Amino acid sequence: MTSSTPLPAHHHWVIALVCVDQPGIVHAVSGAIVQAHGNITESQQFTSADTGRFFMRLQIESPASREELTAALAPVAERYAMVSVIDVVGRPLRTLVLASTAGNCVNDLLFRHRGGQVPIEIPLVLSNHGTLRDLVGFYGVPFESLPITDAASKAAFEARVIEAIEDNDIELVVLARYMQILSPELCAVLEGRAINIHHSFLPGFKGANPYKQAHARGVKLIGATAHFVTSDLDEGPIIEQNVVRVDHSRTPAELVAIGQDEESRTLTQAVTWFAEHRVLLDGARTIIFK
Amino acid sequence: MTSSTPLPAHHHWVIALVCVDQPGIVHAVSGAIVQAHGNITESQQFTSADTGRFFMRLQIESPASREELTAALAPVAERYAMVSVIDVVGRPLRTLVLASTAGNCVNDLLFRHRGGQVPIEIPLVLSNHGTLRDLVGFYGVPFESLPITDAASKAAFEARVIEAIEDNDIELVVLARYMQILSPELCAVLEGRAINIHHSFLPGFKGANPYKQAHARGVKLIGATAHFVTSDLDEGPIIEQNVVRVDHSRTPAELVAIGQDEESRTLTQAVTWFAEHRVLLDGARTIIFK
Amino acid sequence: MTSSTPLPAHHHWVIALVCVDQPGIVHAVSGAIVQAHGNITESQQFTSADTGRFFMRLQIESPASREELTAALAPVAERYAMVSVIDVVGRPLRTLVLASTAGNCVNDLLFRHRGGQVPIEIPLVLSNHGTLRDLVGFYGVPFESLPITDAASKAAFEARVIEAIEDNDIELVVLARYMQILSPELCAVLEGRAINIHHSFLPGFKGANPYKQAHARGVKLIGATAHFVTSDLDEGPIIEQNVVRVDHSRTPAELVAIGQDEESRTLTQAVTWFAEHRVLLDGARTIIFK
Amino acid sequence: MTSSTPLPAHHHWVIALVCVDQPGIVHAVSGAIVQAHGNITESQQFTSADTGRFFMRLQIESPASREELTAALAPVAERYAMVSVIDVVGRPLRTLVLASTAGNCVNDLLFRHRGGQVPIEIPLVLSNHGTLRDLVGFYGVPFESLPITDAASKAAFEARVIEAIEDNDIELVVLARYMQILSPELCAVLEGRAINIHHSFLPGFKGANPYKQAHARGVKLIGATAHFVTSDLDEGPIIEQNVVRVDHSRTPAELVAIGQDEESRTLTQAVTWFAEHRVLLDGARTIIFK
User: Fold this and answer.
1) What is the pLDDT of residue B9?
2) Which chains touch A (3 or more CB pairs under 8 A)?
3) How near does any CA of chain B get to the CA of C251, in Å?
4) Do C49 and C82 belong to one domain?
5) Subunits with 3+ C-beta pairs closer than 8 A to D
């Protein structure tokens, strides 16, 4: 959280925490909240049968400062070896957007962001092409393009990504149809804080031009998957998926257009949930507290 | 809860509670659960901005008996003036089904019940026609029919409903296309424990033969609403709704068939949630802890 | 169709026709197409059991000019007393957009239009507020605002609408959250060529602030209906409907945001189908040849 | 078609045909229909850009007998080298159901069949287990079980399948969770007239226990695909697909239950369309004239 964010008189906090499951956690956490004169307005929890971990997301109203709230929770966090986040509800997450030439995901994200539906702020859209300069500029968001033509320019682009993350206190990187494979080094840097989008089909198709393959097989549903970036391409933990029905009359080009719509809304949804601290990781799975 | 239900060695309990919202409730409730050596495995809560009420549903694992658990919670319930339910997870709710001649909802409910998806037990299906005798019998469920032809026979039918409720410790009454308007007296008796199903359209249609009206207007979506029975016909608190897409080529008869499918799955879903204590009332609204 | 539209060497035509149903129509129409050396690439038909009318939409490839094609079809059209349209596939329909302050529907329409998904051209967006000037301008579309504050200024606005229709050869008027009730005179002028969008609920709600009412009743689905404008407010023939699932935790403000999304995509869909001559009227119903 | 089916005074016919696309087909076909004093009540066509083939499905009302209609169409069929089917609308297709122990698909098919929604007749359900004997018997359908325990008993089962097809003039074989891999020989015999159902995920999973894998990856959508049986396991032309949303809280067992529901409704839908001659093959794709 940036220290300059002004707080309301009565603070509205979000708390997300993960630890090994055992009896008494809720009692301990809610005790700390009582101590901070907090009132729980939203609470969700889940215990993973796979990993034995306990996940919790709370929203509370409390007159406490960040320091007071952190202090109240500290003994509990220590006792249960919790990983926890404390944030102000609605604080815009500092987000770097990586793009290429396709505008659908970027436009959907920026339009809904401007409409107040996506609690992020975007210090920069960084692209390997200049195509989207005007679109991004219309929304008053800084735009920068750096061509990628070979290994050296790709390394330069990724160096600029890391620099932009540091310069802008970036908390989330969104790959909005960035279309480039990230280096393993950058994947490692971004672990757990970068979201990608890709098309999805039943059944899945490997290799080039999947929409053409989907057309050739006559699939009846096409969709999109938003997932965390990992070094295993397109195999990171899934955050959200959507599909839409198609029929035999659709050309491959129409399938692409339909798929892009699904990609846009799926990516924007995933970013929104992440920015609201609703996405928690449980190994290869996500816990989504909608 | 019937006292004869055998309990597992380690009990799995569901607790649902409602009270006026104020700080400290979660801490107090979780403290009682710690006292009963319980571990919370599922928890959902909601504070209604409309009524200021707090709703909570918990599932816990605890070695405590019902008496021990009730005793542990009693001081909390008293302090916060809670309305609460304590039950064994998965205990089949004793359910009376009222039907008429249409078999779709009854068959869907009985088939899924037999498949273990609906935690109810059905001591009786009561109908004003004999049409469904064989279908109900196939599932091994008792069936009884009493004709309704005038005010007197209707009063006799409703008297039999009340008698059946008492004789069988009925906790839920399901109107599975019963098609009769209940008397205000019976509505009052059933308040908060009877679920009805009816067709739904965009826009709504008043009067006779709504599917014909829907056809005449060329609606593109038809659906179903499951709701609590109140004396205000078809206006009780909504539990679940579904719709399905239709087009101009559908005849009124086809709209009816499609609508019946939606009614079946919507009613079965609502019954399942109610039986799992996931449906709580907040005035004219329902809180559904899925 | 504007005479300046350049035609491809091999023309791709759309033909839509309506007449009283009787044997031999398809044979007669396809004979005229054979005469025009045409090949049918898409064909849909429907006979209304309600009105006895026959509806057909064809796409054909033919080297014939408009005059040759019209001449080939003329004897058939006369013999069966057909109402018919002949147009070039993909020709952008000249569309006037009426708006107010809400930007969601306008942005969705303009963005998808720019992406080539909506075959229209927009000579003007006319609004009773200046709010959307920058948004519309970004897409390079002319924008004009005229305040409506009383009966006189409303009449002036409507006079400007009629003038703009005439000056720009307008074929379709889209009410993209225009929010004003049209006068009966304007409704009459626009009959069959103006599309409106409004929110939709199960059940329907009359009166002010329907989202607040929907919240109060705890509806589980909210949606939108795109329909033709008639003098009977919100009761014109339905073109398209969509719904989305909501739950008890949604505030009235969130319901509004969700509803606006449904409105946007539903309106854009209806406009696209209309521009492709896929929407035919059968009394109070629409036949949609998707 | 079985000769014993009584025809209505005024026949309602369905005609499905496939040939290489060229100008004049619709005119020629509709001319033959005029000659048979027929009136077209439903018509759909599609030209495949992939294979250059033309597909058409018609429903007509005509006083002609089958012989007269066939004679009228014969010159057209010959001229365009058509593959065609002529059938009475609604004639129940003779269908053999293969099952194993799972009852969901069989029950859905039999219940909807009894309700008049699926135009088939089922002379036999053949299973490798006796589990479903009572369920099938309840619907008045013959049931037979033959255990499969080794290669010899599997060959005997398949021989019985072929015998049952011949003895009962079977036109469609439905694998309603039959769970056995068919021999290449049987696949060849059944080509184009056997429908299978299997679960589907985004992304797809290979190998055993896919629901467990889907759980481990935390998929948000699970579904089902109905497809033609080919010797390439689970890779035959797709007829219908459905998905349903799931979240992190679902156990693998719950995913199985949800998946079975999708399988049931997807299979029944595919069977219905096939029985209505709405499913045509275009290489590896299906054309579905809904």
Assistant:
1) 54
2) B, C, D
3) 9
4) yes
5) A, B, C
The answer to whether residues B35 and B121 belong to one domain is no
Same domain, D97 and D72: no
Burial of B84 (0-12, 13-18, 19+ CB in 10 A): middle
Percent of chain B at pLDDT > 90 equals 79
CB-CB neighbors (< 8 A) of D223 in chain A: 202, 221, 243
Name which of D115, D138, D257 is nearest B138 (Cβ-Cβ): D138
Least Cα separation, residue B79 to chain A (angstroms)? 16
Predicted pLDDT at C216: 87
> Do both A82 and A132 map to the same domain?
no
Shared domain check, D265 and D213: yes
Distance separating alpha carbons of residues A199 and D46, to the nearest angstrom: 27
Cβ separation of B241 and C221 shorter than 8 Å?
yes
pLDDT at residue D1 above 50? no
d(CA C160, CA C144): 10
Residues of B assigned a catalytic role: 234
Give me the CATH number covering residue A170: 3.40.50.170
User: Which one-letter DSSP state was computed for residue C171?
Assistant: -
Question: What are C148-205's pLDDT values in tens digits?
Answer: 999 999 999 999 999 999 999 999 999 999 999 999 999 999 999 999 999 888 766 7
Find the CB nearest C200 among B203, B216, B237: B203
Residues D36 and D172 in one domain: no
Q: Which is nearest to A24 in space by CA: B62, B13, B79? A: B62
Range of the domain at D44: 11-88
Number of domains in chain A: 2
Q: How far apart are alpha carbons B57 and B211 in whole angstroms? A: 38
Distance from CA of B258 to the nearest CA of A (A): 19
Q: Give me the residue from A103, A117, A257 closest to C257, CB to CB.
A: A117
Amino acid D63: pLDDT = 93
Residue B2 lies in a domain: no
CATH code for the domain of D42: 3.30.70.260
Residues of A within 8 A of C106 (CB-CB) are none
Q: Is residue C195 part of a domain?
A: yes
Same domain, C183 and C239: yes
Same domain? For C109 and C189 the reply is yes
CB D264 within 8 A of CB D99: no
ipTM of the complex: 0.88
Question: pTM of the entire structure?
Answer: 0.88
Identify the CA nearest to B52 among candidates B282, B244, B281, B277. B282
Nearest CA in chain C to A250: C290
* Per-residue pLDDT at A2 exceeds 50: no
Residues of A annotated catalytic, as ranges: 234
Lowest-pLDDT range, C60-74, D90-104, D224-238? D224-238
Residue B222, both tokens: 């038809």
Q: At C235, is the pLDDT very low, low, confident or very high (cuts 50, 70, 90)?
A: confident
Q: Is the CB of residue A241 less than 8 Å from the CB of residue D202?
A: yes
Q: Is residue C128 part of a domain?
A: yes
* B30/A34 touch (CB, cutoff 8 Å), yes or no: no
Indicate the residue among D64, D88, D112 that finishes a domain.
Answer: D88
Instruction: Tell me which residues of chain D have a C-beta less than 8 Å from any C-beta of chain C.
Output: 21-27, 30-31, 33-34, 37-47
User: Distance (Å) from the C-alpha of residue B214 to the closest C-alpha of chain C?
Assistant: 10
Residues B247, B248, B254, B259: what is their CA dihedral angle, to the nearest 10 degrees?
50
Is residue B17 within 8 Å of B249, Cβ to Cβ?
Answer: no
Cβ proximity of D97 and D106 under 8 Å: yes
Q: A1 in helix, strand or coil?
A: coil
Catalytic residue among C21, C50, C169, C234: C234
pLDDT in tens, B214-229: 898 899 999 999 999 9
pLDDT of residue D232: 78
B241–C220 CB contact, under 8 Å:
yes
Looking at beta carbons, which residues of chain B come within 8 Å of A40?
25-26, 45
Asked if residue B216 is part of any domain, the answer here is yes
Given D53, D88, D123, the domain boundary residue is D88
Across the range A172-176, mean pLDDT stands at: 98
